Every structure is written in C-alpha cells, then in structure tokens.
Amino acid sequence: MTRQYSHWRKSRHSDPNGTCVEVGRGETGMIGVRDSKAKGCGPILEFTRAEWATFLTAIRSQ
User: Fold this and answer.
1) Strand 21-26's sheet: what is its strand order?
2) Measured between alpha carbons, how far is 31 from 29 in angstroms, rounded to an integer?
C-alpha cells in the first residue's frame, strides 16, 4: 500500500555531500523514512508511531 507523506525533512546528522535520509509524516500517523538521493522515487521504510519511538530510543542509546 502506498501512503501519502508530507513535511519531509533531512536529518541534521546528514553528510553535507547529500548522503542523507529524510523523514516524513503520513496521513494516518505513520512515519516514512527515505533516501534523499532517490529524489522521492525510491522506497519508503514505514514505521508506526510506537515503532518510531522505539527506533529513536534504540539509536540514541548507542
């Protein structure tokens, strides 16, 4: 299923050379993550809000 995402923003931890990820919000509350080099045409990794919170907690603890 393809969901619509908006308000894409790049990670502040991205490389200045354009190697970065973007995060967007879905209409249903899902969180989408994509590779900015694909210019909006690549796959989107989807998280629920609970999954996203767990993911952020895990990476911040590293």
Assistant:
1) 5-10, 21-26, 31-35, 45-47
2) 7
DSSP conformation class of 1: -
- DSSP for 40-56? T-S--EEE-HHHHHHHH
Structure tokens at 12: 């502040």
Q: Locate the domains of the chain by residue range.
A: 5-60
What's residue 30's pLDDT?
Answer: 94
- Do residues 24 and 36 touch, judged by C-beta distance below 8 A? no
Pairwise CA distance, residues 41 & 48, whole Å = 21
Q: In tens digits, what is the pLDDT along the chain, a chain of 62 residues? A: 456 888 888 877 777 776 788 999 998 899 999 988 887 788 999 999 999 999 999 989 98
